[in-house]
């Protein structure tokens, strides 16, 4: 049964235990022994007698293999298809003696033939997976070539002794998404795995061989000889804390690439607003910041007659409005609130919230883009929640620059500043998802990701900082930063698949919110990290320097160039609208160079 099963029907992910068995012609009995009576979830079993060699069956006068019957385990006639394929109950173990890079031509050609035969047989049986043997030496080019042909051919259907061998193998196979690694826990895990880069890989399978002395003909009245091992492994999972309700909801989106919100093109959905509203930590911190701002703005002796004008930019369904009024109640200050929201659907819900709480005399709804709203009076405090996963990626700088024209000269902006952070990652699953889409548009598009199967290769570093209010109109929102990450010397080599983006935000004075891992509070979940992929992963060795260049670009001419060949009148209309676009570009220059990604915003950008 699934490891860690507690009886509530929650099995989580990848928590199943199988057993490796020797070759038996009677696979039905093998299934009965280990799965029906042994309570294992699957068996890893050879489908062909390991002593078989095609060269022994080859006619010396004929160069092609005889079409004789090879010594396979039972066919699909004797074993129902469901027993072979359903839920991955059988995993095919490919012959361990294969050496596809042998200097001996007979060994090499036999290995190629056997590999192809066994995987074709497993594919015919609709098995879910095959366990390949470890490459025999440092060279594995021919082995990788054969596997790559199988992966990319019509039959699309390894913990190795060193990460370098595994990495060379998958690079030669072009990082195919069906090729993953299995960890053999017969080995000394502490010395061979924990300190190896392989420990950062997306490991789907653990391998532990069955005892050879096990009698296949034992009776179910006896306890299965491997049951103590199964109980021990299962107990490890039972001792883990159960997933929270939020973590259970996030299971399906772990490492899944999502396009970030484009606030000036798309409106947020009701589901998005509902999820944001449940983040109590975020709004508690906003409430604390507003309390401090009100106390600084209005002294106690004037609290009874001074009314503070507060503008909420992007009011949504009223969470920030509620936090502002709660802060006014706590501090005993009088407040007048303008709730500015450009989403006409959200305004309906916002109006209902205001009426339900009898706020109609102190909260005034404004259905407008804040950049074009003519405020009837100047604001003392400007409150906004416009940050994206990378801080400025949802155009908070441009929005607040437009809003500060109606802020008092000594007015307060909440947030007052925010800084983006970047961190190199090994993220093979996210990289494979982006690569599988095949178009350059996806392989260099920044996405929002709930990072899970990743390794963070070095501490994150600051990238761009924005401060509000900004009283120097000529200060550009374009940015450039060169970062140098030192790969720790106590780890092995690794592959950099991309970069995680985070931010730290100062709401007011010492009140902060952060998604950067070293300062993030665990209860904050409003933002998932950003992921900036590399079109081709870059290998870094221990102690090496990874040099990254990052740009934030702003251009008002790009839109006109994009439509230059469409229609003259269309070009004129766009130019008159004075549309702008913002995008990021990034590249690596050490230890090896990559192309500049997203050049001129060709794959992803934000409209202003």
UniProtKB/TrEMBL annotation:
Signal peptide: none
GO cellular component, as recorded: cytosol; nucleus
Entry-linked SUPFAM superfamilies: S-adenosyl-L-methionine-dependent methyltransferases (SSF53335)
Domain PRMT5 arginine-N-methyltransferase, chain residue ranges per copy: 250-414
GO MF annotation terms: protein-arginine N-methyltransferase activity
GO biological process: methylation; regulation of DNA-templated transcription
One Pfam family cited in the UniProt record for this chain: PRMT5_C
Amino-acid positions noted as binding S-adenosyl-L-methionine in the UniProt annotation, renumbered to this chain: 273, 282-283, 341
PRMT5 oligomerisation domain residues: 417-561
Domain PRMT5 TIM barrel: 40-156
Keywords, in A-Z order: Membrane, Methyltransferase, S-adenosyl-L-methionine, Transferase, Transmembrane, Transmembrane helix
Transmembrane segments: 305-325, 559-576
Family membership: Belongs to the class I-like SAM-binding methyltransferase superfamily.
PANTHER family: PROTEIN ARGININE N-METHYLTRANSFERASE 5
Entry protein name: Protein arginine N-methyltransferase
Organism: Cicer arietinum
